[in-house]
Specification:
Elements (H helix, E strand, L loop, with lengths): L13 E6 L3 E7 L9 E6 L4 E5 L9 E2 L19 H14 L4 E4 L2 E5 L10 H7 L11 H15 L3 E7 L5 H16 L7 H16 E2 L7 E2 L2 E8 L5 E9 L17 H8 L18 H4 L11 H14 L4 H18 L4 E2 L5 E2 L5 H10 L3 H8 L1 E5 L4 E5 L2 H31 L7 E7 L11 H31 L13 H8 L4 H10 L5 H12 L6 E2 L7 E5 L4 E5 L3 H6 L4 H8 L4 H6 L28 H9 L5 H17 L2 E8 L12 H11 L1 H10 L3 E4 H7 L13 H12 L6 E3 L3 E4 L3 H159 L2 H69 L1 H119 L22 H20 L5 H45 L1 H34 L11 H38 L4 H22 L4 H16 L1 H5 L3 H9 L15 H56 L2 H22 L5 H50 L2 H6 L18 E2 L5 H10 L14 H15 L3 H21 L4 H20 L4 H4 L4 H5 L8 H36 L29 H17 L4 H24 L7 H20 L7 H4 L1 H11 L5 H10 L5 H10 L12 H10 ...
Parallel strand pairs: 7-21, 8-17, 8-21
Antiparallel strand pairs: 1-2, 1-5, 2-3, 3-4, 6-7, 9-10, 11-12, 11-17, 13-14, 15-16, 18-19, 19-20, 22-24, 23-24, 25-26
């Protein structure tokens, strides 16, 4: 392999080199390796440079190291390089860094003992692994157990779990947890808890078979194989245990720091118990068999408590107290036997002193004679063919015989206990299959290895052979399944070693032969081994320095065995006479132990004496001599070989699962890894052999989809095809040139070792380049953004600084302006004089200097000119000479060439001259040349003209310039003359200057005196000002401090009150939720007990076999066919059960259980009632607080509600008028017209018909408007309950706006403006925006008003008192304005109230007049209406002069608006009456047609028909349904039991069954029939329970009846007559309230039923959602390509690509939408839907988080982004359904924080602080678990360091939280049913005919 990977040994490649301390050490190449190099240049991780020499013979290169992203994989076979250092490093990283103790290695689970209790074996972990695929979850013993359980059920094949490892590696614990898993997930098939018995066998076997060793505090000193039996439904039926090779020598001997079996120390620790007094026990240090290890105590273990556990386990397994005491009696006797002291009598004999206390106790406990036992402990009987001898024993042999007897008794006791455990675990149920758990010792090698180690290593050789064959077989099956060419893989076959041990003439065979020899010894057996195998078998060796030992090369290591003691341990000899003494015991249990004891206990029969003998008897034993010589006891080795062969046959008949336990260190330190010990065990347990077999072929295997997803980045767009398989093939051919490095299977691609690492390197390079490009762009953008921010900040700072500097400069300039003016005049004179002097001097210097420079320049120009002339002449002569020579040469050359060309041309011309064409061509050429020459001449003429023009312009410019220079010369001469005249005035000016100096000095003296006085005054003023400013500043600071203190105190009090109120509210809510949760849990328990009680009643009824009349429903009646279900059969069954119960009660059965259940039910009822009272009290408190808030809200909403009320009353009065008009027109239609005029088609008929139709339309519109207004009022009242302070402020603004609105309305004078305002107001009121926001009218008025003038700002002028006076003036102004506004508002409010009262009175008067008018005849009705209108207008006109003008204008405006509205309403009324007339016309025509059919022709001709008006009185329906008592069963059957939600119920009004039942209940209440009420309610509740019990798994059924139960409950509340419910009703609904019965108790029963239905609904939803959550939330890639697939190894992981049938996030969303739509369709209350959705989201979040915490492959940055995207989709679903406020989002907070934790930076202390503050919804265990599981998917990601995790743990140390790792997915939030009144009127409900309720009568 190394030769094939030589191309990868380049610079920076990382390799593993051997190290004596760490086994393997990582290094990095500093130089490329070339073929033939003998040295590798390396650098270790600590920076040390190293030259690694290669083996000169093999040139073997070191192992390459895997990429970092592959380190820490769940499966070792997923590593690209499979070798020992990679395996060791991967296990170390997982164990030390990630705190993960389980790792897969192909089919093997490697378990490392953490020496620390981990919280990964709880019931929630078992539930999480149950039903999962083995590769989907992190490695765990539960995953192996689940795989075995699943394969047993799927393949119908028995399974085995083989747990092996060194002592202290954790084999027993692993086997125990595997059995616990089976007991938890399967349950038992019978009523007896078999799974508890299986688990109870563990403490017993640990007590009698486990002991403390130097390597393990609870080491199993025997092997056991437990078969757990299952029936056809895969429930546990029983178990059976087989044990192997108990270490009996431990009973009598323990090494230092070791202990005997635990049971002895448990007995000693419990010796003070009364029942153990007779055993005469003491402490463990009082007995020889328990004190040899000198450390009888195990830290952290209470032996007395363990004894209690052991006794409880005995009792659970059916071993009675009597038998238990017998067992403890035998164990105590063994301890006393060890204390029996044997003394030397002489050199060949020994003795026990008389009355030995311990021997006496032993004999008393065992029920044997003291003399017999003391005699045979020091003697033994030897038999020959003719004689029997009794031989005394030396002291050493006597002690050995005593110890042998103790070991034999304990072995018999151990066997007896195992047999009785098997009897207790045996079941009468037939076993269908089993799962075996083998807990057997691992490969052992010590400094001194004896017979026990030999047997253990022999068993491990057999198990390793079976393991190798199984691995080889699986590998071959995988290759054949994928159709890969199978090449024979060479693997280690340990059959030669097994033959060396068990074959003929093998070690065991020679050992048995030596045991049969009369004089066999360990030395002679060793010589036989040397002679037989030393030269023939390479696996057998002889130590150099010993002749009593041998070495066997096992599969794991060489082991040297000491031959001493092999024969004795193989014989296992016990003195026969001692056994006879025990058999003669009076102790029954002891006799039972030895009842199957063979008669001959020595395999050699009668062995020869080994020392001096004493002949005591010579009587022959003729009857038994020949038989005794043939009976031989089987040796221990033979027994072990047979049992091992039986075990291997069992294992080969099952499907094995392997668990290899590793001991990380010898000091039992928690999470400490010793590489040397780990490698030693990995080699011994076969893990490395599995790796070697896998690495020999194609170890890395990818499906085509996984390969495409992972390495899509290496493909170009043109390489991607629709066929993924062809795409992968094409890409691999380009990436990997050697076709032998991979193979294409049917579904997978197989890679050689190292190829995945090569592909990962290519992928990492590609991603790194892309990352660099992205980083470059992002960093550029960020830098530019930062630069722009800095630039803007800098400009802002510069602007302020420059402004400040400019202001300072202006101040400085103002202060120095006076000084500058004074300085100006003085400096002017000084500077003038100085300037004049300097000017004169400068002119003189300039004159001299310029003259000198002109002369120098002239000389220089003259020299240059002469030099140029000389150069010109010389260069011209040279150029001419060169030109002449060149011209001559060129001319000569031209002559030669031209001569030659001319000759050729001449010849050619001569030839061409003879032809006419030549002349033509010649002429053509001449013409062209002439034209060209003419053109050239023209161009030259143009150029000449241009040049002449330029020349003339140049001359003109030159003349102009000359003229200018002459003028300048003239000016300069004039200036010279002026300078000469100025020189004459200098003298006079100097004299004037002297005079001015004198004056200046006097002035300066005066100025100085003035300045001194001014400076003194200024200092004094500045001092005074500074003092005033300081005082002012102090006062200002004091004022600010006081204001700030007041504000802070006010804010603190406000925050304190708010916090206290919030805390008290939250505490009350928490207490209320806890009470609800406790009550609902008790209710659930109560319902469970009721069901159990019903089941017991049914079972007892069936047991009694009482004959019962009527129909008995059989099991077939329980089918899902609803048509077969009849209520009559149910009723008959219930009657039969009740009669059966009466018979059972009269019988002789024991009713204790029933009485206990009844007592328990009564207690639960009382507790439930108490909780309900507490709940009612708390809800009443909440309702009172809510009522106080409502009162405050009502006060704030008074004005707006009055406006709505006015409009509603107006519409209702208009409706009454329309009804009146409609009735009037009907009567006019019949009464005022004759038969002819009223005939269809006549003009009068048509007019009336149109008016009637229009009236009908108008009536319907008014009804709709009234309903809309009512719904608006109800919605506004409900909205008021959620706003307190803000809405009060808005109400104040509304009142102010209404005041301004009145003022604006008063300004409207024109009628056109009034009508426009009215139309705008009307449109606004009818707009959807107005329906949502009732204050839109005020907004419209605000737009009509002119905006008020802006307030002036008060600017500070720098003086505090000015500011203070200005503030006072402002406050007074604002107060006066506020008071004026308040007075005007109150006055206007009084006016509005008066108008409202007047309108109410007018409305009342109008209603009275309307009632009076309705009683008048139609002719007088119109006259009365006109008279009334005239009277009203007259009164209004008479009232006008007395009113205020403003009020008058307002009233006029209002009346005009009312009149306009009435006009519009009348138009609509006309249209509606017309439509109603059309409808009535159609009805009349139909009636007339029917009458015409029934009348004969003669009657039609002879008797004219005169229409008679017969008015039909409408029946007022009271919203009740009447039924007969005998129809009650039919009602319940049709409405509950046989109603299908998917059929008839879909088309009903939501909650129709509840309304119908309540209407029936109302009628029973109306009749005051308590029996009928009670019977109906009882039948309804029982029927709902029955239908839910029958179809409880159907979500639609449960949802339907939850909605109807809640609606029925709300109806009972709404119509109960209580004030708290009646306030939501309409007056008509209040008339329908129950009048005779208070059904509060039944409301509580219905509430409990609703809780039960709700919990059943949650279970239904959970069962449907559970399979979708993990696949949709975690495994499916919603954002394709984000999370690359890593190598998976042999354990197949569930693909994240959405295959057919795989659940996705869309599946979850569709299911949630289906749930929501179903509940909405059934009319479920919105608040209840919110609670259901919250529970759904909790289940989704909890299940997702639990799986995330148990799956290392899901903890990556990309998966965090996927989870956050999925959560955002769920939140979007909530927004779409308007459910964001239901609390569902908060339940996802732990999952959101876990996803954020996967994505945040995890390096520095600041990151740790951010994580601690961010993850407040996660526990410390969950945070640490996520950080430990975090796995980079790409090379540029980094792992979380151990230091960072410890920093997190230290920061979170003070958190008070539960240590539980997983969330409880079974939690159900307490449900509440808020009162939801219905606006549906009962009298409007129609019953569909599909319900078959024709027997109900409407009342």
């Amino acid at each position: 392999m190394n030769e094939e990977l030589e191309f990868e040994f380049v610079k920076y490649a990382r390799v593993w080199i051997p190290d004596p301390d760490e086994v393997w050490k990582s290094a990095e190449l500093t130089k490329d390796y070339k073929q033939g190099d003998g040295i590798l240049h390396l650098q270790l991780e600590d920076g040390t440079n190293l030259q690694h020499k290669l083996d000169p013979s093999t040139k073997t290169l070191p192992h390459l190291r895997n990429p970092d992203i592959l380190v820490g994989e769940n499966d070792l076979t997923a590593l690209s390089y499979l070798h020992e250092p990679a395996v060791l490093h991967n296990l170390k990283v997982r164990f030390i860094d990630s705190k993960l103790i389980y790792t897969y290695c192909g089919i093997v689970l490697v378990a490392i003992n953490p020496y620390e209790t981990l919280p990964i074996y709880g019931a929630e972990i078992i539930n999480a692994y149950s039903g999962q695929n083995m590769g989907d979850m992190d490695p765990h013993i539960f995953a192996v157990a689940e795989e075995a359980y699943k394969q047993m059920a799927r393949d119908e094949r028995n399974q085995s779990i083989i747990v092996s490892g060194e002592s202290g590696a954790g084999k027993t614990v692993s086997a125990k947890y595997a059995m616990r898993y089976f007991a938890t997930v399967s349950g038992s098939a019978s009523e007896a808890n078999v799974e508890e018995k299986v688990l109870a066998s563990n403490p017993i076997m640990e007590a009698i078979g486990n002991a403390k060793t130097t390597r393990n505090d609870n080491s199993s000193r025997f092997g056991k194989y437990i078969e757990i039996g299952f029936d056809k439904r895969y429930h546990i039926t029983g178990a059976n245990m087989r044990t192997y090779l108990l270490e009996k020598s431990r009973v009598v001997f323990q090494a230092d720091e070791e202990r005997n079996y635990h049971i002895f120390y448990q007995l000693c620790a419990s010796s003070r118990l009364p029942e153990f007094k007779a055993l005469k026990l003491g402490g463990a240090n009082d007995f020889h068999y328990t004190k040899q290890g000198r450390n009888p105590v195990i830290d952290g273990v209470d032996d007395a408590r363990e004894m209690s556990t052991t006794r409880s386990a005995f009792s659970l397994l059916g071993i009675t107290e009597l038998y238990q005491m017998g067992l403890f009696q035998v164990l105590a006797a063994i301890l006393h036997l060890g204390n029996v002291d044997v003394k030397d009598r002489d050199a060949d004999s020994s003795m026990i002193l008389p009355n030995n206390s311990h021997l006496m106790v032993f004999c008393d406990l065992m029920g044997v004679a003291y003399q017999d036992m003391s005699h045979w402990l020091c003697h033994k009987k030897l038999k020959t063919a003719t004689e029997t001898y009794i031989k005394p024993l030396p002291r050493v042999q006597a002690v050995n015989a005593r110890d042998a007897l103790a070991k034999h008794i304990y072995a018999k006791l151990f066997t007896w206990i195992v047999e009785h455990i098997n009897q207790a675990l045996h079941s009468t149920v037939q076993q269908h299959s089993f799962i075996g758990v083998l807990d057997i010792y691992g490969f052992e090698t010590f400094e001194i290895n004896s017979f026990e180690q030999f047997c253990i290593n022999y068993a491990n050789e057999k198990l390793q052979q079976q393991f190798n064959m199984h691995v080889f077989k699986l590998e071959q099956e995988e290759y054949m399944k994928e159709q890969i060419p199978w090449t024979l893989i060479d693997f280690y076959d340990n059959q030669p070693c097994i033959n060396l041990i068990e074959a003929k003439m093998g070690v065991l065979d020679l050992l048995d032969e030596e045991c049969r020899m009369p004089k066999g010894s360990d030395d002679s057996w060793a010589q036989k081994l040397y002679n037989t195998h030393l030269k023939t078998c390479a696996l057998f060796q002889k130590p150099r320095m010993s002749n009593k030992a041998f070495i066997i090369q096992h599969f794991a290591d060489k082991v040297e065995y000491q031959c001493e003691g092999f024969l004795a341990k193989n014989k296992d000899t016990v003195n026969e006479e001692q056994i006879h003494v025990l058999k003669a015991s009076k102790f029954d249990l002891l006799v039972e132990l030895f009842q199957d004891e063979e008669k001959v206990t020595s395999p050699t029969g009668a062995g020869p004496p080994t020392g001096g003998r004493t002949r005591l008897s010579v009587k022959p034993d003729k009857g038994k001599s020949s038989q005794a010589s043939k009976e031989h006891k089987k040796t221990v080795g033979l027994q072990f070989r047979n049992s091992l062969q039986l075990l291997m046959e069992t294992l080969n008949a099952t499907t094995p699962h392997y668990v290899r336990c590793i001991k990380p260190n010898d000091y039992k330190y928690a999470f400490t890894f010793d590489p040397k010990r780990a490698v030693q065990q990995l080699r011994a347990c076969g893990v490395l052999e599995t790796i070697r077999i896998s690495a020999a072929g194609f170890p890395s295997r990818w499906t085509y989809q996984e390969f495409f997803s992972r390495y899509r980045v290496l493909m170009k767009q043109k390489d991607v095809q629709s066929d993924k398989k062809m795409t992968c093939k094409n890409v691999l051919e380009k990436l990997v040139q050697d076709p032998d490095k991979y193979q294409f299977g049917k579904t997978k691609i197989f890679f050689r070792a190292g190829q995945v690492a090569y592909l990962e390197k290519l992928r990492a390079d590609k991603l790194r380049a892309a990352c660099i490009r992205i980083q470059k762009t992002i960093r550029c953008w960020l830098a530019r953004k930062k630069f722009l921010r800095v630039k803007r900040a800098t400009i802002t700072i510069q602007r302020h600084v420059r402004g400040y500097q400019a202001r300072c400069l202006a101040t400085f300039l103002r202060r120095t302006r006076a000084a500058v003016i004074i300085q100006k005049f003085q400096r002017m004179y000084v500077q003038r004089k100085r300037y004049q002097r300097m000017q004169a001097a400068a002119l003189a210097v300039q004159c001299i200097l310029r003259a000198y420079m002109a002369r120098q320049q002239y000389k220089m120009l003259l020299r240059e000119n002469k030099a140029i002339v000389i150069q010109k002449m010389v260069r011209g002569w040279l150029a001419r000479q060169w030109y002449r020579r060149s011209l001559a040469a060129v001319v000569y050359l031209q002559c030669c060439v031209r001569r030659m060309c001319a000759r050729r041309q001449l010849k050619k011309l001569k030839i061409e001259a003879r032809s006419v064409e030549h002349y033509k061509k010649l002429n053509i050429g001449m013409e062209n040349k002439i034209m060209q020459l003419q053109r050239r001449i023209d161009e030259q003429n143009k150029e000449n003209r241009v040049m002449s023009e330029r020349l003339s312009s140049a001359e003109t410019a030159h003349a102009t310039e000359g003229e200018r220079m002459r003028r300048e010369l003239t000016r300069l001469r004039g200036a010279e003359e002026e300078a000469k005249s100025s020189a004459n005035r200098v003298v006079s000016l100097q004299e004037e200057l002297e005079r001015l100096r004198v004056e200046l000095q006097s002035t300066q003296k005066e100025k100085k005196a003035i300045e001194d006085w001014a400076q003194t005054y200024q200092d004094e003023m500045e001092k005074m000002i500074s003092e005033l400013k300081e005082q002012n500043h102090l006062l200002k600071n004091e004022k600010n401090d006081l204001n700030r203190l007041i504000q802070e105190q006010g804010q603190q009090w406000t925050e304190k009150m708010q916090r206290a109120l919030k805390d008290q509210t939250s505490q009350l809510e928490c207490d209320l939720n806890e009470e609800r949760s406790r009550y609902q849990n008790l209710l659930t328990e109560h319902l469970r007990l009721e069901e159990k009680y019903d089941d017991l009643k049914e079972e007892m009824t069936l047991t009694m076999n009482v004959p019962k009349p009527g129909h008995r429903r059989t099991d077939s009646a329980h089918s899902s066919n609803e048509s077969e279900y009849t209520y009559n059969s149910e009723l008959a069954e219930s009657e039969e059960l009740s009669r059966g119960m009466e018979d059972v009660t009269k019988g002789t059965l024991d009713m204790a259980l029933v009485l206990k259940l009844q007592k328990r039910v009564s207690e639960l009822e009382q507790e439930k009632q108490g909780l309900q009272n507490e709940l009612d009290r708390r809800e009443e408190q909440f309702q009172r607080a809510r009522a106080r808030d409502d009162e405050e809200h009502k006060k704030a909403r008074g004005a707006e509600l009055e406006y709505e009320s006015l409009k509603r009353q107006e519409l209702e009065s208009e409706n009454k008028k329309l009804r009146h008009d409609l009735g009037e027109m009907r009567r006019a239609l019949v009464g005022t017209a004759g038969a002819g005029s009223a005939a269809p088609g006549s003009p009068a008929y048509k007019v009336l018909l149109d008016q009637l139709n229009a009236s009908t339309e108008e009536l319907e519109v008014r009804k709709e408007e009234v309903l809309i207004l009512r719904s608006q009022l109800v919605s506004q009242k409900e909205a008021m309950q959620h706003k307190v302070r803000g809405h009060t402020r808005s109400c104040k603004e509304t009142m102010t706006d209404s005041l301004q609105y009145v003022e604006d309305v008063q300004n409207l004078t024109d009628a056109k403006e009034i009508s426009q305002a009215y139309m705008g107001l009307k449109d606004t009121n009818r707009s959807p925006r107005y329906l949502r926001k009732p204050l839109a009218v005020n907004e419209l008025v605000n737009r009509l008003r002119a905006p008020p003038p802006d307030m002036r700002n008060i600017n500070e002028d720098g003086e505090l008192w000015l500011v203070y006076e200005g503030l006072k003036e402002t406050n007074r102004l604002l107060e006066s304005q506020l008071q004026a506004q308040r007075r005007s508002h109150e006055a206007e409010l009084e006016v509005l109230r008066g108008e409202l009262q007047a309108v109410k009175e007018e409305n009342h008067r109008q209603q009275q007049l309307l009632a009076q008018n309705l009683q008048l005849p139609p002719e007088a009705r119109i006259e009365a209406s006109l008279q009334h209108e005239i009277t009203r207008l007259t009164n209004e006109n008479l009232m006008l002069p007395t009113e205020d003008p403003k009020v008058y204008r307002t009233n006029i405006l209002r009346r005009m608006i009312d009149l306009l509205e009435q006009v519009e309403k009348q138009d609509k009324t006309v249209r509606k009456l017309k439509k109603q007339l059309k409808v009535f016309a159609k009805k009349i025509s139909d009636l007339e047609g029917g009458q015409m059919e029934n009348v004969s022709p003669s009657q039609m001709v002879d008797e004219p028909i005169h229409p008679v008006n017969i008015p039909r009185r409408e029946k007022d329906f009271q919203g009740m349904l009447e039924y007969k008592k005998e129809d009650e069963l039919k009602l319940v059957k049709n409405l509950i039991l046989e109603l299908k939600p998917r059929g008839v119920a879909v088309n009903m009004i939501p909650g129709l069954p509840a309304y119908i039942l309540f209407m029936c209940l109302r009628h029973a209440d109306y009749l005051n029939d308590d029996q009928k009420v009670r019977a109906l309610l009882t039948s309804v509740i029982n029927s709902i329970k029955k239908i839910l019990k029958k179809r409880g798994e159907d979500f639609e059924t449960v949802s339907f009846w939850l909605a109807n139960t809640c609606r029925f409950l709300h109806c009972l509340k709404q119509y109960s007559g209580d004030e708290q419910f009646m306030k939501y009703n309409s007056p008509k609904q209040n008339e329908h309230c129950l009048s005779n019965f208070d059904l509060a108790e039944y409301r509580q029963v219905l509430s409990d039923l609703a809780i039960q239905i709700y919990q059943q609904l949650i279970k239904c939803m959970e069962n449907i959602l559970q399979p979708m959550i993990v696949s949709g939330m975690l495994e499916h890639e919603t954002i394709q390509g984000v999370s690359g697939v890593k190598p998976t190894g042999l354990r197949k992981r569930t693909s994240s690509i959405a295959d057919e049938g795989t659940y996705t996030l869309d599946s979850i969303l569709r299911q949630l939408s289906s749930f929501h739509a179903t509940m909405c369709q059934h009319g479920t209350d919105p608040e209840l839907i919110k609670q259901v959705v919250k529970q759904q989201f909790y289940i989704i979040g909890a299940v997702t988080l639990n799986n995330l915490l148990l799956r290392k492959d899901m903890c990556s940055w990309s998966k965090g982004m996927q989870i956050r995207y999925n959560v955002s989709q769920l939140e979007e679903w909530l927004r779409d359904k308007n459910l964001m406020v239901c609390g569902a989002k908060e339940t996802l907070e732990p999952l959101i924080q876990a996803a954020q934790l996967l994505q945040v930076k995890k390096k520095t202390d600041e990151d740790a602080e951010a994580i601690c503050s961010m993850c407040n919804a996660l526990t410390t265990a969950q945070i640490v678990k996520v950080l430990n599981l975090y796995t980079p998917v790409n090379a540029f990601e980094e792992r979380v360091s151990v230091t960072f995790i410890r920093t997190i743990q230290n920061r979170l140390r003070d958190r008070k939280e539960s240590p539980q790792l997983l969330l409880d997915t079974k939690v159900i939030y307490p449900v509440t049913f808020p009162f939801s009144p219905s606006s549906l009127a009962l009298e409007t409900i129609q019953i569909p005919g599909s319900l078959n309720l024709g027997f109900l009568t409407r009342v």
